[in-house]
Write a structure and sequence with these properties.
This protein is α/β, with parallel strands linked by helices. It contains 4 helices and 39 strands. The strands form 6 sheets. An 11-stranded parallel sheet has the order 8-11-14-17-20-25-28-31-34-37-39, with no helix packed on it. The protein has a 10-stranded parallel sheet with strand order 9-12-15-18-21-26-29-32-35-38, with no helix packed on it. Strand 22 and strand 23 form a beta hairpin. The chain is flat. Its EC number is 2.3.1.191.
Length: about 350
């Protein structure tokens, strides 16, 4: 639970919202309409949630002007309710604070450059010539490799591993268990097995990037893996060597992106999408969940390849029919030829 307490007038000023109600009413948290108490703030982003307003015990609601007359209690009127919710959520963050300075249990190389305003938590390890920027926060157990760079105000949650030479921009967030800069999957076949190809590039991450937990982002083989500014990546995502992800793109959970794929700017990739290597995805491309992306696209669009859910009996029948498509296509062509041979020849007499 948040220990923060804000008056509705403070929240209205923060959101540049129109306040209708009691300006001194105190808010200590954010909750949905069904579970909110008198000290909570709620929001309505879709018309389907209006039905919960009448019975809600919430202390105040963020609403757009179109819905303002649907609620008689305390309300904050804004142009974009979901954006307002996102902004105000920062005021009620419950993440434990990390004191500025270096915890006594941290292991820091003598040549590492750590800004005095950075916070280094328990059992962190920071390698030779690594750089930690102003206001950066490294929670417990974070490992930073030699020559890696963590820029200003970046927050790294416990047990993240940043390999040697990796560069991470300003205002980033990386969640627990993620590994950045591990070797890409590069091997040359031999008669005796596999010869490892050493991965000589690194990973370059721009500003304001957020990466979820337990992701793996491989370093480049030759050249770098690059994640540009304002990209958001969900949990359990694998990004292979030399991948590039353009600005403002969003990657949902369990996505796999094979080596040297180029994802454009402002793309969205839904859960469990698999993207082939060495292809280029245009800016503003959007992929539905489970899509298998085998080739690139030069123009923006919305793409899907996974069949929708169906009753298992129907699915079994359709699966069998799918294997018969080639045979059925051949039969149809034969029937078309037979039909054509039976039809009278066209004449020009009119």
């Amino acid at each position: 639970m948040s220990m923060t307490q804000r008056s509705l007038m403070e929240l209205a000023d923060f959101l540049d919202a129109k306040l209708i109600g009691h300006p001194d009413h105190k808010i200590t948290g954010i909750a949905d309409l069904q579970s909110a108490s008198a000290s909570d703030l709620s929001f309505v982003n879709q018309e389907s949630y209006l039905k919960y307003l009448a019975d809600s015990s919430t202390g105040a609601v963020i609403l757009c002007s179109d819905f303002a007359d649907k609620y008689s209690g305390n309300k904050l009127i804004v142009a974009n309710t979901y954006l307002a919710y996102a902004k105000v959520s920062a005021l009620f963050e419950t993440l434990s604070t990390l004191p500025v300075g270096i915890h006594p249990s941290a292991i820091i190389a003598a040549s590492a450059d750590i800004d005095p305003s950075a916070a280094i938590g328990p059992n962190c390890v920071i390698g030779a010539k690594a750089r930690i920027g102003a206001g950066a926060k490294l929670y417990s157990g974070v490992s930073i490799g030699d020559r890696a760079s963590i820029s200003d105000n970046t927050l790294i949650h416990p047990n993240v591993t940043i390999y040697h030479g990796v560069s991470i921009g300003k205002n980033c967030v990386i969640h627990s268990g993620t590994v950045v800069g591990s070797d890409g999957f590069g091997f040359a076949p031999t008669q005796d097995g596999w010869q490892k190809i050493h991965q000589l590039g690194t990973v370059l991450i721009g500003d304001s990037v957020e990466i979820g937990s337990n992701c793996s982002i491989d370093r480049g083989a030759l050249g770098d893996t690059v994640i540009h500014d304002n990209v958001i990546i969900d949990n359990l995502v694998h990004i292979a060597h030399n991948v590039s992800i353009g600005k403002r793109s969003a990657i949902a959970g369990c996505v796999g992106i094979a080596g040297s794929a180029k994802i454009g700017a402002s793309c969205t990739v839904a859960g469990a999408v698999a993207i082939n290597g060495h292809i280029t995805i245009a800016d503003n491309s959007h992929f539905h969940g489970g899509t298998i992306v085998t080739k690139g696209n030069a123009e923006p669009g919305v793409f899907a390849s996974t069949p929708p859910m169906q009753d298992v009996k129907k699915w079994r029948r359709n699966s069998v029919r799918y294997t018969q498509l080639d045979e059925m296509s051949s039969k149809i062509r034969q029937l078309e030829k037979q039909l054509k041979s039976l039809l009278p020849n066209e004449t020009s007499d009119k």
